[in-house]
Every structure is written in structure tokens, then in C-alpha cells.
UniProtKB/TrEMBL annotation, chains A, B:
InterPro entries membership: ATPase_NBD (IPR043129), ROK (IPR000600), ROK_cs (IPR049874), WH-like_DNA-bd_sf (IPR036388), WH_DNA-bd_sf (IPR036390)
PANTHER family membership: BIFUNCTIONAL UDP-N-ACETYLGLUCOSAMINE 2-EPIMERASE_N-ACETYLMANNOSAMINE KINASE, ROK (REPRESSOR, ORF, KINASE) FAMILY
Pfam families: HTH_24, ROK
Record GO terms (molecular function): glucokinase activity
Tree of life domain: Bacteria
Protein name according to UniProt: Transcriptional regulator, ROK family
């Protein structure tokens, strides 16, 4: 292809993507509304939408009220027609779900708890499960995967997974990119979660959005003015390995006093195991189960459980203070296993933030629990693929 | 102006800016080279350069060797013709310098040490000094100012200045924006320093650049893929107030264990005052003088001085580890007062980074001392104005 026609096709793809994104975010619109909003001529919009209609990507919805009472035909993106598989890799936890383009969940399954020794078997099991889903549902057009950070995005590897180093051996791009008949997209877990908030929670999509993942690891994803913050190799925003105490607990990463040593689901489980009275039988539970049991007990008013929850929340608050000083986000969304502690957690995090930040900065940072119906990282895995669907339509259907 | 002609003039300004930036970064070029490099037609370049020639912003340099041995005329940006004033506000320290567009320093002066009680007088003194400079040098076209963070960029105020709260009362935009006959630009100090590295040290301008300001405060400026990282209100990258010990020394900002309580010039001076044997007479010195004296003594091989320098460097190293985990920069440049400790400081910072980061991430982060001939923040104050000169030429000369 000549450089000129290269450029032309990239402009066409960009315009097509802008039409899809506009319809995605605004629902039913007329051609005239789209033309006005994205600054293309009506003729260009007619040409682009004709191709999208021919491919059944969009549909006409009949007459709608237009400008100056002129009637015009509504167009709608067929969001229910396309399904997306989202795969969340935590450390011991793998979840697989199917969504439509609007984040409505159609299916979800948890794989058996992963042991350090059986990671290759888990990879094989994921491949088989996803293949079966694709075979049974021809609407599936893409797979998104959310993997623990620090994720080296160009290499396809996680540089370190505290407490389960076996995941380091897995090259996600190599293991999965050609495993299915549909494209696969991989993203660091907290960034995927941030993308889910960005896509499905429009009031959070302005300014600088931070998704604070409180799960088997502690992670952070930042979307600043619409752009994900990666750094040089994709290992920026690794808040879980930012030290809160240079003389504190040692971590697998080489650092000392890493935030995730104090408030991840694993760290909580460790503390429960050391104090077996709080959640009886916790040593045979998964990290998520142990945390759930603790939060349930705190919910009944048990003082010991409540004190532990508040103590953990204080550490999460210290992390939030660091996030504010390092990234000055508009909003911090708390999600994943530990966020299920709910309002008492949020209250304590807010207290620490007001106590330890400059008032006019801390007070102006909104802190909230994730309100997505499904876990933000599973949803985020799908959001990664949906973002690619909207940005690179020619990967998904014939546009010629 | 109609929206169409608005758009046209913004496109013209953008093209003009691209021509200036190309000439700025590449030196003498032919019209054909510029056209090819920035993707405009030769006719458009002829039109733009004709106006710039008429205004004497650029000049013809005579014949040069063109493509395929065709001879063509070289064009050159008149970098020596335009002078810029850079003003650095530290806490007790104000420096004013004049540079040409290529960062050659023409003049520099230190104002008398600032006391908390005399900040309004200092503001007046800066205004008078800069006015005199502009009166005496008609080449001066802009003033850039670098001020301590956390700087609320839309409000023009610093939200907090540890140890000298009086600066909080100063609204830099209000005090200075109309004070001179030339435009004034204000930026947070470490961001200005990052901009100086970006502009005057081309090998650092790729990827993600971090300027780590080790002065009366500890600051950080990040330029990620050409874009400064601000966050919601401009108070991102406040590394000086990131805690390295949640049970550590309290700070004016409300936080506990803030990095700058351990390794700023002020913190070093405090330690010297508490151990008067190391630098005799230090209690009557400025922070910068006390630090210089300590580094000089360490340079003579004095073991006590060397131990203190190494101890401070270890804290700066902890900060570098946090910068790597939070921002994953390609390169960290150390600058300002404390960086004058030189190689022993750099060695210790590198040792801490290798010890406390994931090897493949830490090893791949370049750490270096600023090599700019003048302090990076003073230079950076000018760089802020130079960036605006190149991006918004119509503010500086007649383009009609």
C-alpha cells in the first residue's frame, strides 16, 4: 500500500471509530446529530453509516424528532449483538465472564483456586473454557484479559507476582494471542478496572480517574484526561510496591514496607491465620473467603473484627494519601475483594485522607466504592476488548 | 471572528509553531526539508517562512547541499535575537537570570535571602529587578517563573510551602501577569526543571523523563511522551510529600514521614545545626551554603561528613524507588542544591534503587545528575517561556 493510501485508510478508520464511539456513548442519534458532533460533513456520515448498516453493526430505529422539528431517522449501535469474554487473572483466582458491549453480564464462572504448582494447567484450562464459550456463542468477537502488574506490556510478562512467582513464567501474549479465532487484548488488572469505570460510569470519565484495586494484590490504574498512564515499559502506577515504611516488612520485589504487605487480601488472610479466634477455620479458606467472613463478622458489630477492618482501612488510607500526592486524581474508586468491606472502609479511608493531605487538595478528591454490578477487573478485562472494538472497527468486521 | 476563521487561524498558528519547533530542534534546514519533515506542501512552507523572514524571526544562511545534490537555501531560527528572563522562587532563595532561546546564560543574580516576614518586599524587589532588565535589554520577549509545588495552576497559588507558609499568600498570576510589558508564564519548579532537561538535553527527551528536584523542597516533574503530568489541579508528582514512613516525622502538609523532611536542603541544614562539629558556623549560613560546606568537607575524605552525605543519599534513593514504582520513567535526573553532592550521592542512590526495585525495572531506569550549565530550575523557568514562544508565536510577533 502506498503511503498516501495508508494515510487515507487510517483517516477512514479514525472517522468510522469516531462514529461508533459517538453512538456508543450517546445512544440513538440521527446522522445530522453525529455529523454536527464530530465535525464531519453529512455526506461523509452517510457513507460511513451505510457501510456500518450493511454490516449490521448499527441499525435504523425509525423516525425521531430532529432539529427544528424536521423528522429524521435514528441510528443505534447494536450493542447486544456483540459479546466479549473477560478473563481476570488474580493470583490464586481466575474468573471468566461474558458481557455484551454495554457491560451487561451474560455468563460468569470462577475457575478452581490456582496453586503455584499448577499454573500451566490453569493456563490450559482457561484456553479450553474460553474456546468452549466461543464455540457455543458466535456473538463473541473478542477476548480481554486483566493480569497482575507490574505488567511489561511489550513483552507480555508480569515482572513479579508477590506470593505466586509461578505466574512470572507465563507470557500472556505468547500463550493466548493465537489461542482463539478472535482477537485477544491483555492489560494490567488495575488499568483494566480503570477502563471499566471510564467506559461504564460516565460521571467518572472526566478529569483524572484512579482505580485503586484492593485484591490479592494492591494495584492502581490512572486514566488522565482520557489517556492511560503507562510510563516507559508499562510498570507505572505500581502503588502496591510503593513503600509506606522504609524500615517495614520486606517484600518479594526487593523493596521494604510495600503497601500490599499491609492491606491486600493475602495480608489480611495472614493476619486472620495468626489470630484464629476472629474467623474460625480461616486457614482452609481462600483469601477472598477469609476476607468476606471477616467483613461479615464486622458487619454484625463484632468489636475485634471491626478493629481489624479499621486497621486495614487505615493502611488503605495511607495508600490513598500517596495516590493523591503522586497523581492528584479527580476521583479514586475503591474496588475488588477488600472494597467489599464497604462503608466502614470508605469512612476510615476518608478520615485518613482528610487528616494527612493538604485540605484544599484532599477535600477536593472524591473517593468512592466501585458501583459496577460485576467486579471492576473482570468487567475491565472486557472493557479493554470493547475499547479496541470501538477504536479499531476494521479488526472486527468488513469495512470495504 | 466566525468559527470557521477561528479554526483557520488556529491551524495557521499550529503550522507556524511546527516550523519554528522544527528549526529550533534541528538547526539550519532548507524549506524542502521542513516541508518533508512536518508533512506540509512546499507552497505552505514558502508562505509561512516568508512571514517569519519578514519579521526577522528566521534568517537565510546561504546555499546548502540539498537532496540529490540540488542546492538550496538554508533557514535558521534567530535564537540569539530573543532573550528570556527566568525567575526561580525557592523558599528562602530567589534567582533571576537572562538566557537566549538556546539556554545560553547572559546574566544571573541572586536576590538577598528571603525571610518569612519580608515576602511582599521580595515580590516588589523581583518586579523591580525584572523591569530593569527588560528596560535595559529590548531583546527580552518573555518572563518564565518557577515556583514551589504543590502549585494550583488555575488559581496561581502554591497550596503549601513547608517551613515558609508566607509564600502561600502570594498569588503569582495576580502579582506578576500584568507586571511587565512582556508575557509571563508560571510553572511548578520541578516541572520547569523537567522542561529544561527536555528542551536542552535532547537525549533525555524521549520516553518518560523525571526531574527530581533536591533543593529547599523535594519536588518532581514528569514529562511522559512529550506531555507534562499535572493531575486534576496541577498538584500531581508532589514526591516531597509522599510518605516514606507512616509513623515518621510530621510535616506541615498534614502527612507524616514526608520525603522532604529527610533529605531537603533544609532538613540537611537542621541536622548540621544539631551536630555543630561537622560544619562549624553552619547556623549562620543559608541552607545552600550549609549544604555546600558539607559536600566540600565530604570531598576531602572526612568520614563524618561522608557518612552524613551517604545517609541523606539513602533517603533520596528511597524517593527514587517510589518514583520508579509510581511513574516508571525512562530516566531520573537529579538536580538542585543537594545534587551538588555529586558522584557519591549518585552512587548511593543507584545502590538503593538496585537493592529495592524489581531488577528488570530498576536496572533499566537511567539515573543521572543534571548536566545543564545553570541550575535546572532557573533554566527551567526560562524553558517554560521558550516553550510558549515556540508554541504560540503570534503572542510574540506580528504574523499577519
Amino acid at each position: 500500500m502506498s503511503s498516501y493510501s495508508d494515510q487515507q485508510s487510517s483517516i477512514s478508520e479514525n472517522n468510522r471509530s469516531r462514529v461508533l464511539q459517538y453512538l456508543y456513548h450517546n445512544g440513538i442519534c440521527s446522522r445530522a446529530q453525529i455529523a454536527k458532533a464530530i465535525g464531519l460533513t453529512p455526506a461523509a456520515i452517510t457513507k460511513i453509516t451505510a457501510k456500518l448498516l450493511a454490516q449490521d453493526v448499527i441499525e435504523e430505529t425509525g423516525d425521531m424528532e430532529g432539529d427544528k422539528n424536521r423528522r429524521s431517522i435514528g441510528l443505534n449501535l447494536n450493542c447486544a449483538k456483540y459479546h466479549i469474554v473477560g478473563v481476570k487473572f488474580a493470583r490464586s483466582l481466575v474468573q471468566i465472564a461474558v458481557f455484551d458491549l454495554k457491560c451487561n453480564r451474560i455468563f460468569m464462572t470462577d475457575l478452581p483456586t490456582v496453586n503455584e504448582e499448577h499454573i500451566p494447567e490453569t493456563v490450559e484450562c482457561i484456553r479450553n473454557t474460553v474456546r468452549r464459550l466461543i464455540k457455543d456463542d458466535s456473538s463473541i468477537v473478542a477476548v480481554g484479559m486483566a493480569v497482575p502488574g507490574p505488567y511489561l506490556k511489550d513483552e507480555g510478562r508480569t515482572a513479579l507476582v508477590s506470593s505466586m512467582q509461578g505466574w512470572r513464567q507465563i507470557n500472556f501474549i505468547k500463550e493466548f494471542s493465537d489461542a482463539f479465532d478472535v482477537p485477544v487484548f491483555v492489560e494490567q488488572d488495575a488499568r483494566a478496572g480503570a477502563l471499566a469505570q471510564f467506559l461504564f460510569n460516565p460521571e467518572l470519565s472526566k478529569g483524572s480517574l484512579a482505580y485503586y484495586l484492593l485484591g490479592e494484590g494492591i494495584g492502581l490504574g490512572i486514566i488522565d484526561n482520557g489517556a492511560i498512564y503507562y510510563g516507559e515499559r508499562g510498570t507505572a502506577t505500581e502503588i502496591g510496591h510503593v513503600s509506606i515504611d522504609v524500615n517495614g516488612k520486606p517484600c518479594d520485589c526487593g523493596n521494604v514496607g510495600c503497601l500490599e504487605r499491609y492491606c491486600s487480601a493475602n495480608a489480611i488472610h495472614e493476619r486472620l491465620n495468626a489470630n484464629p479466634g476472629i474467623v474460625p477455620g480461616c486457614e482452609s479458606m481462600t483469601h477472598a473467603q477469609a476476607c468476606s467472613a471477616l467483613f461479615a463478622k464486622a458487619g454484625t458489630g463484632d468489636e475485634t473484627a471491626m478493629t481489624l477492618v479499621r486497621d486495614i482501612a487505615r493502611y488503605i488510607g495511607y495508600g490513598a494519601v500517596t495516590i493523591i500526592n503522586a497523581f492528584n486524581p479527580t476521583c479514586i474508586v475503591l474496588g475488588d475483594i477488600v472494597a467489599q468491606a464497604g462503608q466502614p472502609l470508605l469512612d476510615e479511608v476518608e478520615r485518613v485522607v482528610l487528616d494527612r493531605t493538604i485540605p484544599e487538595i484532599g477535600r477536593n478528591t472524591r473517593i468512592t466504592l466501585s458501583t459496577l454490578p460485576t467486579d471492576a477487573t473482570v468487567t475491565g478485562a472486557a472493557a479493554v476488548a470493547i475499547t479496541n472494538f470501538l477504536e479499531h472497527p476494521s479488526m472486527f468486521f468488513d469495512v470495504a
